């Protein structure tokens, strides 16, 4: 049974040291090896897209673990793609319906265009929020006891890159570098 994952890459930490980064299959195998090694601190795997800790089942051989976390890509079915259109009720004032019906393609097309335009206009804010939340999750797991943690969080959510870098400068190198990468997308 393969695990389907939204993340393309994971990162493995043993204590405060980054041991591996890459495809889930490779990182799971490295995590299995790390749990058998003499590394200090807990062995944790993070989803690079969300900053969440990934709970792994590392029982069995290396091949079994690799197979368990191999990402399966479903083949595209033949024919037209299903758009997933869902019918729902919308309540508007009569003048709004008049305007929508006067648009090319009618009310449905106009509403879809308005929603897509609004989604594109807010993409920068949504991206910023996603990376802040990913960095926060990682920092809560790995850096909660480190000096300057609260100040680093304040800088993160204030979108203050220089302040963030100053707060994490004394943290262990791999922890600070990974937090920076999640926070600022690098």
Main sheet attributes: strand count, strand direction, barrel closure: 3 strands, antiparallel
**Residue runs with pLDDT of under 50 for 5 or more positions:** 1-7
| Number of structural domains | 3
Helix percent reads: 40-55%
Helices and strands, with pairings:
Blueprint: E1 10-14, E2 17-22, H1 24-36, E3 43-47, H2 62-68, H3 94-102, H4 106-121, H5 123-142, H6 149-157, H7 161-168, H8 173-184
Antiparallel strand pairs: 1-2, 1-3
Give your account of this protein's structure.
- This protein is mainly α.
- The protein has 3 domains: 10-68, no CATH class; 84-121; 124-184, no CATH class.
- It has 8 helices and 3 strands, in the order ββαβααααααα.
- The chain has helices spanning 24-36, 62-68, 94-102, 106-121, 123-142, 149-157, 161-168, 173-184, and strands at residues 10-14, 17-22, 43-47.
- Strands 2-1-3 form a 3-stranded antiparallel sheet, with helices on both faces.
- A hairpin with a 2-residue loop joins strand 1 and strand 2.
- The longest helix is centred in the C-terminal third of the chain and has 20 residues, at 123-142.
- It is flat.
In short:
The protein has 186 residues and is mainly alpha-helical.
Main features:
186 residues, 3-stranded antiparallel β-sheet, mainly alpha, disordered N terminus, flat
